[in-house]
Design brief:
alpha+beta; Nuclear Transport Factor 2, Chain: A; six-stranded mixed β-sheet; 28% helix; globular
Amino acid sequence: MAHVPSPISAFIDATNAGDSDAFVAAFAEDGSLDDWGRVARGHDAIREWDRTDNIGKRSRFELVDIAEEGPDTYLVHLKVTGNGFNGTSPFRFTLRGDAIERVVILPD
């Protein structure tokens, strides 16, 4: 398995700790999260998505695998459990420095 970059670790760890501030801080100020076409852009929108679809649903992530697709782009499979979606889902992360520029949650 490839090395897990720190912004991706922060995304997983913050979710599992229920730490919304750390979750949002893992993203660049102008970062985005695309949840099957529903896009949250910027910290305020990402915080709202986190409240309604992630930590607010008591989600937990378990890393299944990670593959580097190109420079600063990773395909990550996460097993998700909680009071919302449950199952394994692919997440495509695009990083910019020490932050997440974009996350796309892909259909299985």
